[in-house]
Amino acid sequence: MMEDSFQSRLYRFAARHVAQNLPPWTAAKADDQTEDEEEAGGIGIRISLGMPRSIAAPLGDETWTLEPAIMQETKFSAAIYRLKYGPQIGFIRIPRYQHDPKRAEVFGDLIRRFETDTDALLIDQQYNRGGSLLQMYAMCSYLTDRPLPVPLHQVKLWENDVPEAEDVLERQQYGDELPDQDRPSPYEIAWANFVIRHAKLGKGVLSDPVPLFGISQIEPANHVYSRPIFLLSNHLTFSAGEFLAAILKDNGRAILLGRNTAGAGGCVRVLHSDTIDRLIPGMSISLTWTVGWRRNGFAIENTGISPDIEIRDTIEDVKSDYAQFRRTVGLTIAEALHEPKGISVLKEMRDARMQAETNPAGRDIG
């Protein structure tokens, strides 16, 4: 069990659904499948979604690196680089948010080291295809010393949601009589109450925007990273990666670098059936069942999250093994850290833009 109570509650919630055929904690895109490859811009380059390798590293002289065995087990790549211009930068590449408490623990161990040995942290989630929303929440809890409100979701319930909710509320009645593993968490109870209320509206109805699974905010872990954070994303950052970008950006916790994310801003469920299996053995269909809304009223679906500072890779970068791209990322971070007001000015610009944005859908999502 995770030592942090917020993470423990997340994984207790997830564990009850992982064992089932329809995992509602999944935040997108084939979490356990082999790494997919996509054509990159029609130029004949094969890019692997979820690839462990980063085009942003190395940033400078390497002073520490993650052990190869842990790198292989977690698919993280992590290091500390000393930039040419002085600061030490913690770096971690997150290729996907695969449901795994062990990976969250390793991430927490990395954060402990980075907090002691670095001046800033760069998280690279380019080409991150998503994964478990709750896994991302657990990892994000190491990045903040205060609660972070999360995006809300409009939800389309499935037919088995109501029986599951009724089971949760029935188990709630037994209280301490049940063993810990069978006792519903506060998140399960809140979510079950919502499901019962919303089911009365009838099938096929999207809910008002609500905290998904009853989780309205990310609570800090018992040790956190307190220094500046930079988050690097691109047009092939999907789903859970986009929700992380929204959370860190909208709460002023990180400066976003790179490109606009993909705009796959909803959770999916995996549908298996005998009919599908007869057509293509072993095949399943992923169906979106939520639409995520940022706290400023903008949808993530089909819109994505824009960077604070745009950094694009080019054909010339491809030819040079991304040397210029890495140099630009390093210079951008160094400049923000070197200028005493650099980070605060960037945040002020972002906050002013956020306040100026209106709610295009005319929704009350407070």
CATH T-level topology: 2-enoyl-CoA Hydratase, Chain A, domain 1
CATH class: Alpha Beta
Number of domains: 1
What is the approximate shape?
A: globular
Oligomer: single chain
| DSSP summary: helix tally | 11
Strand content: 15-25%
State mean pLDDT (0 to 100 scale).
82
Q: Encode the helix/strand succession as letters.
A: HEEEHEEHEHEEHHEEHEEHEEEHHH
| Low-pLDDT segments, ≥5 res | 18-47, 356-366
Helix amount: 25-40%
**End-to-end separation:** 33 Å
Q: Can you walk through the features of this model?
A:
It is a single chain. The protein has 366 residues and is of the alpha/beta class. It has a single domain, classed as 2-enoyl-CoA Hydratase, Chain A, domain 1 (Alpha-Beta Complex), CATH 3.90.226. 34% of the residues lie in helices and 17% in strands. The protein is built from eleven helices and 15 strands. α1 runs antiparallel to α4 and α5 crosses α6.
